[in-house]
Each structure stands twice: as structure tokens, then as C-alpha cells.
């Protein structure tokens, strides 16, 4: 007796019940896998892109916006701060590394960041080709930028004003590619790095300063430096005690704001966590309902085919073989649902993150760890085994003589 074949025939004999069981269970699995992969992807991005940045100093405004704009490069900056004031703060002995950044332009949607050579150390980025920036209008490409735009050492391009690709406000100065970073799988992969002088030069600060100088507003080069601006200052502390004093001092004694990126991203994670938990609970409820559907389907089969099962017993089949017929049917439905749910979650997240990639030029989709996949698979298997255990109860209590005599 081929038990697998009997189970498959049973499944084919009730297509509507089978479809509903597979559909509802796969919907639950899709939600559970999708939510877990979403959580894993965001957690990876939050932790990985933070690098060694302990503090962000920028213009007054939304603290979260400052972090998203200056650390994750996913929002607009809150404003500019004076470079001279930032340099004064960076001389504090509690600060290990202070890196100014300035941006406001893009090339085909990829942000151009003016900074110093120390910016790359936050992300452990190393050069794959070429050299570092030595003079204005030279740039180093993040690995993703070079790959997507097919740029190489020696190529030149024109940047456009703003953080979104446009053909309206294009600058006249050419930027030259002098280096390409190795892949880091961090935010620097999708940035174009240059020095601060390039950003100031492109935005005609020098021309404006010369004009003011001609009008007698400034008398020497030190005055020119005093009006230069940057977007924000990224800081790494020498010791953790700086966390307690430096942010408060800057917030109270200057017109700038100091923000702890880990704290702000943790708050963001908590806000989004409420929605994720709600969807997770909905998925668990659907999982319970789907297992009840499988139980009803199997139990109905056992009751409706009680005569056939009793007849099999009279021909020598054991109770265990009858239980196997029911169990295999439940397991086949579970396996089909898991495969459909897995494929649906992959397809759904692919299209979701494709939109994110188009908007932010970054692929943030991370593979779901096998541990999480096994956890969800194990949970589904347990629920199906419970449904099977309840459905086989009539087989265990089966009285063959009564069933055969009643059927006659």
C-alpha cells in the first residue's frame, strides 16, 4: 500500500479545501517571513551604517532628521553651521575624531559629500583603485556608485544642485574621478566623496567672498574662513564620559544642536516596532486559523471515509498506517504553504525594496538568517502536528465492526 499516493489522491479529491488551507497558511507564513526579514534588514542598516560615529553636531531642528541626513544620508539636512565654530568644538580633548561634512549636490541621484580623509575611517573604507583626493574638484566614488554609473578613474562629470537628480541646476565645474573605494556594504558605497573646498568652490563661495572683500566687508583670509559653512560635524569620543557632558554643553551654550545617533535610531526603531508587532500578531492569528482549517479538513476526511479506513483495517492495514495517511496529507499541505509563503515574501520584499533603492540609491534588503527561517518553519510544523494529532483521534477510537455494520 503506497501511503503517499493515497494521501495525494485525498488532497486532489477536495481541491477547494486544499486551496483554502494552503492559501491561508501561506498568507500567514508570508507575513511572518516578510516581517522578520524587514526587521533584519533595518536593524542591519541602523547598526552597520552608524560606524564609529558617537555624536552629530548640526543646525537646530529635528534631531532625527539631522541623524538621517548626516549619518544615513536619507533625508534633507536641517541647515548649515559655521566651519569656524565646528573647528573650535573639535579641539576639545574629549574628542578623538571630528570630521566635518558638507553636501547639497548630487550626480544622477548619488550624493556628493565634501569632507576630510578621516571620513572613510568611520566605515573602514579602503581604496580599490586610484588615490585620495589631493586638490579641489577631485572625487572618490563609493563602490556602488562606480558600479551603477560605470565610471572609472579619469572620468569627469558635472554635478547638479540639490539631493535629487535633475537637469535644471547643473554646475559648470567638472569633477574628476581619482579613486574608487572597495565595497563596504555601508552607506559610503553610495556616496561620492570629495574635499570641503570642492563643495565651497562649486557653490561660488569664493566669488561671493571676493565680492564682499571688494566691498570692504572683509580684510584678510581669516575673515574669509570665518564665514565658511558645513552641514554637520561627525564626532567619535575618546572615552564614554564625554557622552554625559559634551552634548549638553553644546545644546545649552551654542546655537547648534548635538545629537546622539544611537539614541535617535533606537527611538525610531521603537516607533516602527509598534507597527511591526501588530502585523506579527495578525500573522500569528492567521496561523492559528489556518491550522484550524487544516484540522477541520483532515477531521472531515477521517469521518467521511470512516468506512474506507475500516475496510483497509480488515485487509491488514495497521492503525499507524491509517494515521500516516492523515499525517502525510497535513504535511504535504504544510510544505506547499511554506514554499508558496516563502516565494511570496521574497517577491513582495523585492518590489518593496526596489522602490527604496530607486528613491535612496541603496539596496537595504538583507537575507533572513537561517535561525529565523528555522524558527518560523518549526512553529508552522508544530501547529500542523497539533492539527494532525486532533484529527486522528477518530482513527484511534475506531470500532471496525460498528462502522462496517452501520454502512451495510
From TrEMBL:
Membrane protein topology class: Multi-pass membrane protein
Protein species of origin: Abyssalbus ytuae
Pfam families: FtsX, MacB_PCD
GO MF assignments: transmembrane transporter activity
Keyword Transmembrane: yes
Annotated family: Belongs to the ABC-4 integral membrane protein family.
Membrane-spanning residues: 16-35, 281-302, 322-353, 373-396
Coiled coil stretches, renumbered: none
Listed name of the protein: ABC transporter permease
All copies of domain ABC3 transporter permease C-terminal, residue ranges: 282-398
Protein location: Cell membrane
Domain MacB-like periplasmic core, first and last residues per copy: 18-199
Keyword Transmembrane helix attached: yes
Main localisation: membrane
Keywords of the record: Cell membrane, Membrane, Transmembrane, Transmembrane helix
GO cellular component: plasma membrane
Amino acid at each position: 500500500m503506497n501511503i503517499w499516493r493515497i494521501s495525494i489522491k485525498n488532497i486532489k479529491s477536495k481541491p477547494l479545501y486544499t486551496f483554502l488551507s494552503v492559501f491561508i497558511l501561506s498568507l500567514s507564513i508570508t507575513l511572518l517571513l516578510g516581517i522578520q526579514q524587514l526587521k533584519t534588514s533595518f536593524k542591519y542598516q541602523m547598526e552597520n551604517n552608524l560606524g564609529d560615529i558617537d555624536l552629530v553636531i548640526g543646525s537646530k531642528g529635528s534631531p532625527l532628521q539631522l541623524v538621517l541626513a548626516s549619518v544615513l544620508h536619507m533625508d534633507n539636512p536641517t541647515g548649515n553651521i559655521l566651519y569656524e565654530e565646528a573647528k573650535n568644538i573639535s579641539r576639545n580633548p574629549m574628542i578623538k575624531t571630528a570630521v566635518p561634512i558638507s553636501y547639497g549636490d548630487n550626480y544622477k541621484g548619488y550624493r556628493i559629500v565634501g569632507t576630510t580623509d578621516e571620513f572613510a575611517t568611520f566605515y573602514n573604507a579602503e581604496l580599490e583603485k586610484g588615490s585620495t583626493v589631493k586638490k579641489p574638484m577631485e572625487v572618490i566614488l563609493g563602490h556602488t556608485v562606480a558600479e551603477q554609473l560605470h565610471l572609472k578613474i579619469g572620468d569627469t562629470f558635472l554635478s547638479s544642485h540639490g539631493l535629487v537628480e535633475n537637469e535644471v541646476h547643473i554646475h559648470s565645474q567638472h569633477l574628476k574621478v581619482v579613486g574608487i573605494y572597495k565595497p563596504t556594504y555601508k552607506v559610503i558605497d553610495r556616496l561620492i566623496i570629495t574635499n570641503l573646498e570642492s563643495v565651497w568652490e562649486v557653490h561660488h563661495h569664493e566669488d561671493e567672498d571676493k565680492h564682499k572683500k571688494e566691498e570692504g566687508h572683509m580684510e584678510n583670509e581669516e575673515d574669509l574662513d570665518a564665514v565658511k559653512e558645513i552641514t554637520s560635524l561627525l564626532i567619535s569620543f575618546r572615552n564614554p564620559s564625554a557622552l554625559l557632558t559634551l552634548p549638553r554643553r553644546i545644546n545649552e551654550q551654542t546655537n547648534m544642536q548635538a545629537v546622539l545617533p544611537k539614541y535617535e535610531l533606537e527611538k525610531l526603531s521603537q516607533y516602527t516596532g509598534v507597527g511591526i508587532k501588530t502585523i506579527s500578531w495578525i500573522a500569528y492569528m492567521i496561523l492559528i486559523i489556518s491550522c484550524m482549517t487544516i484540522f477541520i479538513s483532515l477531521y472531515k476526511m477521517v469521518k467521511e471515509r470512516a468506512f474506507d479506513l475500516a475496510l483497509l483495517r480488515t485487509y491488514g492495514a495497521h492503525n499507524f498506517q491509517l494515521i500516516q495517511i492523515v499525517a502525510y496529507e497535513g504535511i504535504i499541505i504544510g510544505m506547499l504553504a511554506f514554499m508558496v509563503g516563502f516565494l511570496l515574501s521574497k517577491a513582495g520584499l523585492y518590489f518593496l525594496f526596489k522602490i527604496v533603492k530607486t528613491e535612496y540609491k541603496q539596496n537595504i534588503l538583507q537575507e533572513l538568517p537561517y535561525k529565523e527561517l528555522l524558527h518560523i518553519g518549526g512553529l508552522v510544523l508544530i501547529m500542523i502536528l497539533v492539527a494532525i494529532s486532533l484529527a486522528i483521534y477518530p482513527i484511534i477510537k475506531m470500532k471496525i465492526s460498528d462502522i462496517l455494520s452501520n454502512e451495510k
